[in-house]
Amino acid sequence: MLRKLYNWTMGVAAKPNAERWLAAISFAESSFFPIPPDVIAVPMVLANRERAWRLAAICTVSSVLGGLFGYAIGYLLFETLGKQLIAFYGYSHGFDKFHDMYAEYGAWVILIKGFTPIPYKLVTIASGVAHYNLALFTVLSIITRGARFF
Predict the structure, then answer these.
(1) pTM for this predicted structure
(2) Which of the residue ranges 47-51, 66-70, 77-81, 130-134 would you say has the lowest mean pLDDT?
(3) In whole angstroms, what is the distance from residue 30 CA to residue 17 CA?
(4) What mean pLDDT is predicted for residues 20-35?
(5) Distance separating alpha carbons of residues 29 and 70, to the nearest angstrom
């Protein structure tokens, strides 16, 4: 299944509406989609390096908006949708430990995990579950996702 999704995203990178797809994938990856936007962004940048800053901005803005959606999943829908997403990605067993670490180091978890390829959706959903300060979550997400994509 993942190979099929990967091949699909690679094909999308060559389409005329690739920027819209990049935004959609960046949004979705921050809350529920398994494939990171890098898969589509890298070929787009290599095809036209002058668009690199624009594409990084699209990824950043879309990722932060998707992160807010992930936050809402954790905050409002954890018992129904959130737990299913965590289980789907095989993180059910470690989510409680992650949540405890999050409770202790909140801002650092957002900054460090948001910059790495570790699934950012875990951070966004955990932020919602923990009822982390939404304004601070948003600012930290802008910093970490911007640093990652730029």
Answers:
(1) 0.85
(2) 47-51
(3) 21
(4) 90
(5) 9
**Dihedral over Cα of 65, 70, 71, 76: its sign:** positive
> Is residue 54's pLDDT more than 90?
yes
User: Looking at residue 35, what is its pLDDT?
Assistant: 81
b/e sequence 71-110, b meaning 16+ C-beta within 10 Å: bbbbbeebeebbbebbeeeebeeebeebbeebeeebeebb
CA dist 51 and 55 (Å) reads 6
Burial-class residue 111 by CB neighbours within 10 Å (0-12, 13-18, 19+).
Answer: middle
Structure tokens at 76: 């409002």
Domain extent listing, the chain = 2-149
